[in-house]
Amino acid sequence: MDISTHKTHAGAPAPTPQPAATRTTQRKHAARGAARGAARGTTRPGDRIFLGLSRGAGILLLLTMAAIAVFLTYRASLAISQDHGNFLTTFEWNTNQQQPVFGIAVLAFGTVVSSIIAMVVAVPVAVAIALFLTHYAPRRLSGPISYVIDLLAAVPSIVYGLWGALILVPHMNGLFGWLNDYLGWTGVFSWEGGAPRSMLTVGILLAIMILPIITNVSREVFRQVPRMHEEAALALGATRWEVIRMSVLPFGRSGVISASMLGLGRALGETMAVATVLSPSFLIKASLLDPGGGTFAQNIASKFSEATEFGRDALIASGLVLFVITLLVNGAARLIIARRKEYSGANA
Amino acid sequence: MAKRIDVSGLTAYYGAHKAIEDISMTVEPRSVTAFIGPSGCGKSTFLRTLNRMHEVTPGGRVEGKVLLDSEDLYGAGVDPVAVRREVGMVFQRPNPFPTMSIFDNVAAGLRLNGNYKKSELADIVEKSLRGANLWNEVKDRLNKPGAGLSGGQQQRLCIARAIAVEPKVLLMDEPCSALDPISTLAIEDLMGKLKEQFTIVIVTHNMQQAARVSDRTAFFNLAGMGQPGRLVELDDTERIFSNPSVQATEDYISGRFG
After folding, report:
1. Mean pLDDT of chain B
2. Which of A291, A324, B1, B60 could form a cystine bridge with A279, CB 3.0-4.6 A?
């Protein structure tokens, strides 16, 4: 008997209070033993070598990071001090003239907007796929589907870029026309009829690129929802969707946010695919359908090889801003996750 | 409100493995019926067939009839979701929804079933928490997470959650096995109170508990290794513990078993 319940609790602490208490003391003993072992271990050559290696690796990592940061900040400050425009608000990127004028406004806007589009499209689809794989699909179907999604993650981004430019762009005309007809009045979806190499196309392409990582991480999170939480909902007379709403999604919430952040990180920094699809310009357009705009990574990739020493410094400065944006986004995500820690379910 | 359960010829499988075979019994309304027996004899499996939870286990399958009053739970066209709204369940380990507050945990089943006004919801939540002898301990922190309570309180919260939807039957699968003796006593007291309103079925490994709380006791056993579990006998608790009609029952109860 109890086959199912026992399966659920495999690895969980024994139910009776007494063994749990014994276990705590055992753990204490183990910890003390380990501490003693470590103290004694430093006298043995093997342990000393390993300690030195791992400590050295840690320090080397910190040093490398610091060196990169110092180098980038130095080069960036060289460029920014020579900028005759406003580095944050100028809609221009001319670094080759006597009085260079360049600003990141367009790049910041394009990077954020294309990433938001990618998230809006990819996250719901990825969560839906993950739920389907873990809670709806029969096992012999979910295996192959997971495999195909893993394959999607392995496609190099230049291939996505080529596919986007050669196949996605020509096929966007229909969608753009439809959006312009029905939602054109909003301004955001108006279309002057140019080639659909615009922010919306870039966003959709990015969505496809970040779909696998969000799907895979969400799937693993949903798979770890304890059986007992799902049974709690089932026993109250919840349908499958209600079980998902009551048990699976709340439990997986922070995991899905983390997964989305991984995807967002890739979307913010994606270079080749954007550079291949977008037709860039230093303009901010209200419409997502008209071509133009740019992103940090795309701008660096398309200008770096022909830039002067000073031009490179300017591009490095823009790269620093991207780095700061990524840091801010990750910090915000951590805040969201931490805010509901009390309810996280990690203690259940 | 409480309903009678009539089981006839019930056999349950896990895939090809037959877990219990040909069980027939009647569970009286407004009483506590205890299932006892050695581990692996199928009493939890049998309990889970009474609200169609057995079939959510991959490969789980049931043959036979379970009548709730006169309605067959396994009849054609019967929705298992509807069955579980009639037959509530409390599990071995307390499993409040970790992301929900105490209030929301109790209200969870009600919110599934329909639209309640805020005031109605608050009334039912209070009534259910009082019914589970938990109200006085949590009334000042209803919006705190349910997972922050002690184990015994969590289990009573789960009972409150189960009775909030006013089921006809309450199934309890070793509800005290993860609890300390004081919390166990609190839950046993609670069962005596709940049986005035519900039909209660409890699986327990603790024979003193079965003797204390139940009116009727069913003894399950295996014919041998790899054999399916069977019902040996079902009788008044007093009789089972003093003068059972089957020798195997007496052996098990007196500890002379296997």
Report:
1. 90
2. A291
What pTM was computed for the model?
0.80
Q: Which domain holds residue A108?
A: 101-343
Is the CB of A250 less than 8 angstroms away from the CB of B161? no
* Cross-chain CB nearest to A234 (options B53, B113, B158): B53
Which of B23, B92, B97 to probe by mutation at the A interface, max A CB count within 10 Å? B97
Q: With contacts defined as CB-CB under 8 Å, which chain B residues touch A245?
A: none
Does residue A61 belong to any structural domain of this protein? Answer: no
In DSSP notation, B103-167 reads HHHHHHHHHHH----HHHHHHHHHHHHHHTT-HHHHTT-TTSBGGGS-HHHHHHHHHHHHHHT--
CATH code at A320? Answer: 1.10.3720.10
Task: Work out how many domains chain A is built from and give that number.
Answer: 1
Superfamily of domain B5-98+168-253: P-loop containing nucleotide triphosphate hydrolases (3.40.50.300)
Q: Do B112 and A236 touch (CB under 8 A)?
A: yes
A144 within domain boundaries: yes
- Please judge whether A236 and B88 are an interchain contact, meaning their C-beta atoms are less than 8 angstroms apart: yes
Using a CB-CB cut-off of 8 Å, the residues of chain A touching B89 are: 235
Kindly report the backbone phi and psi dihedral angles of residue A198, in degrees, each rounded to the nearest multiple of 5, phi listed first.
-120, 180
The interface predicted TM-score of the complex, written ipTM, equals 0.88
Q: Could you give the CA distance from residue A38 to residue A55 in angstroms, rounded to a whole number? A: 15
pLDDT score recorded for residue B5:
93
Q: Is residue A66 part of a domain?
A: no
A34 assigned to some structural domain: no
Hey, are the CB atoms on A348 and B147 less than 8 Å from each other? yes
B196: closest CA of chain A, how far (Å) = 21
Tokens of A202: 């870039």
